[in-house]
Design a protein that fits this description.
Elements lengths: L8 H7 L30 H5 L5 E5 L5 E8 L2 E8 L7 E2 L10 E4 L5 E6 L8 E6 L5 E3 L9 E5 L6 E10 L2 E8 L5 E5 L5 E6 L5 E7 L5 E7 L2 E8 L8 E5 L5 E6 L7 E6 L5 E5 L6 E6 L6 E7 L3 E5 L5 H8 L5 E7 L5 E8 L2 E9 L8 E7 L12 E7 L5 E7 L18 E5 L13 H8 L3 E5 L9 H5 L8 H15 L8 E6 L1 H11 L7 E5 L5 H6 L9 H7 L6 H9 L13 E6 L7 H13 L5 E5 L9 H19 L16 E4 L7 H8 L6
Parallel strand pairs: 30-31, 30-32, 32-33, 33-34, 34-35
Antiparallel strand pairs: 1-2, 2-3, 3-4, 5-6, 6-7, 7-8, 9-10, 10-11, 11-12, 13-14, 14-15, 15-16, 17-18, 18-19, 19-20, 21-22, 22-23, 24-25, 25-26, 26-27, 28-29, 29-31, 35-36
Length: 696
Amino acid sequence: MRHLMLAAGIAIALAACGDRQAADAPAAAGPAAKPVALEQVELIPREALFGNPERANVQISPDGKYLSWVAPLDGVLNVWVAPAGDPAAARAVTRDDARGIRQYFWSYRPDTLLYLRDTGGDEDFHLYAVDLASGESRDLTPYEKTTADVVAVSHRQPDAILVGMNDRDAQWHDLYRVDLATGERTLVERNDAQIAGYFADADYGLRYALRSRPDGGQDLLQREGAAWRVREDIPFEDVLGTGPAGLSVDGATLYMRDSRGRDTAALFAVDTASGEKTLLHEDARADVGGSLADPRTGAVQAVSVNYLRDEWTAIDASISADLDALKAIGPGEVSINSRTLDDRTWLVAYSAAESPVVYYRYDRPAGGGAGTPTRLFSGRPALDGKPLVPMWPLELKSRDGLTLVSYLTLPPHADADADGRADAPVPMVLLVHGGPWARDGYGYSAMDQWLANRGYAVLSVNFRGSTGFGKEFTNAGNGEWAGKMHDDLIDAVRWAVDSGVTTADKVAIMGGSYGGYATLVGLTFTPETFACGVDIVGPANLNTLLATVPPYWASFFEQLARRMGDPRTEAGRDWLTERSPLGRADRIARPLLIGQGANDPRVKQAESDQIVEAMTARDIPVTYVLFPDEGHGFARPENSKAFNAVAEGFLSTCLGGRAEPIGDGFAGSSIQVPQGADIVPGLAEALRAHSPEVRH
C-alpha cells in the first residue's frame, strides 16, 4: 500500500529493529540507581545516533555461501558481501556515491544480488542486478520515470524474476519476466484491467490479483485461463486489513489476512481448489502482522501480533524450539532477516529498547530441536555503553473512550529508578507518526533516544486512524483529519500533564509526513496548546496534496478520497480546504521549524513553500530548512544530522533542553535555509562557516 508514511524513518530503521519490552519487566540496562541532574548524563553525539551504521540489513544468501549487509563506502551506504565463514573478507559490490543503497535482496541465481536505487529521493526506484563473479551491475528497469515493483522471486525459476514496470502507463504497472543474466524483459501481462497488485506461484504462473473499485473497495481476482474473474469482494472498510499474504510453493494454499466479518485481521489458509478457509491465528487486541514461511514449501510456520509489543506464535511445531532459543538471547526482540533455502541457517537481528541491533547467525541442527545463535557484530558499536533509556508502553483513553496504545520515553534524570513514571515534570516532545495509516511500535528509536538524552520526555500516540488495532479503530479516523485524530493527541498531552510527566507550557509537537501535518494542525487549530512545532515534509494544503500525488498511486486514490475528502466534488474540496493548516496560518503564534526535501514526490516542496509564504506575508517568524537532494524525508546521514542539529537548537530555545553545538554538523550536507536562520541560535553562523554562498 502506497501512503504518506515518513521515509525519513529509513535512516532510523537502519539503526535497529526495535525491542518490545513489557512495561512491568525490569529494564535490561536501566539508568543510574540514584537521581542525577541532566548535565551529569553523557551527551550522546548526533553522529553516533544518526550517522551511518557500521552494518545494517544483514542477510545470508539462499545457498549459504555469503553474508551480506549495508555499510558505508567512502561515507555512502553500499552493499557489501563476504564469505559466510569469513566476514572480515567483505568487499563492496555496489558503488553508489549519492544517497546510498538501503534496499537489496538475494536472487536464487548463483552469485546474483538485486538492489533498488532512486535518484535524489524521487522514488523512481530502478532494480539492479549485481553479478558477484564479474562485478557487473545491470539496470533491469532502464526506463525513464519508472518505478520497479518486484512481484516474485522463486527458487523454482532461479534465472528470472517477475517485475512490474510503469514505463508505458505511469499509473499502472505492466508485468514482465526479466532474465537476470541478460536483462531482457518479456511481457507477461499488459495491465489494461487496472490491476493494483499481482500474485504469482513459484513457477511464475499468475494466480491472483487485486483491483481497486470506484467505491474504495477491492476485488480479489482469480486467474482462469487468460482472463480474470472476481473471486471475492473486499469492502472499503476492510481494504487495509484484508488481502493475500502468501502462496505455498505447490500453489495449493493461499494465505489471507482477513478482517471481513470481524474487527481485527486474522490469518487464514485457503484451499485454492475448494475455497475452504482454515483459521491459523487471531487476536482480539490487534491485527496479525508478520509471518515466517518455510523457504522450501512456502508454508506459514509462525505469526506475529503487535499490540503493546511484538509477540510470535508458532503455527508449525517444528520451529517452536528455534523460536524459544532465539527468545533466550535476551529480553528484547528478535527478527529473522533471512534463511538459507535448505533452512539450516538463519540470519537473526536482536535489539532491545535501550540497545541497538546486534546480528546473530543461527544454525539449526539436522535432527531438529534448538540450535545455537552465534553473535556476529553490532550494527552501531558507537552506542555501546551510552546512556540509552527504556521505552514504556501505555494504554491511554481518548475523551470518547477509545484505547490509544502509546509509548513513553523518559530522560534518565526524570526516572532515576527506571519504573516508567516521571520523578518530576520535564519538557516533552509529542512525536507523531506518519501515514496516518501506519503505527508507532515499541523498541529502539534513534529519535526517541536523542530527544531523551537532550532532556525531553517523548510521547508517541497511536491515534485513531492508525493501523494494526482492528478496522474499527482505523476507520474511526475517516474524515477526522484535524478533528478527532487531533483530539486524541490533545488527550494524550493532557494525560502527560495530569500524570506529572510534563507541564502544559513545555510541550512541543513534532513529526514527519502526516506527523508534519499534525504539527501544522497543532499550531493552527489549537495555537495555544504547544510551545513550538517541528514539521518534516508535512502537507499544508490538502487540496494541492491530493492534486499532485504520484501517478502510480492511482490504485489507492479512492481510499484517499474516502478517508480524507474527495477533491472531485465541491463538498470534498470544501472539507479539504477547511482541514488544511494553510487557511489558518494567521493563527500561528508559536515558533515553527519546517524541514523539506526538494524532490519529494509525495508531499511536494510547494506544500512547505505555501505555509512559509503565508507566514512571511503576515510577518510571522518561521525557520525553513530545505535539502535539494532529498525526497520524502532525509536519507543521507549528512542531511539527517544537519537537520537534527538545527532541530535540537530550536527545541532548546523553545523548551529549555540541552543541545550539542552545531559545530561541523553541516559537513557534507546540502542544507539550505531560505527563511529564518537568525531564529535558531548559532544557525546563521554555522551556515556561513559551512559555505559562504549557502542560501539563508
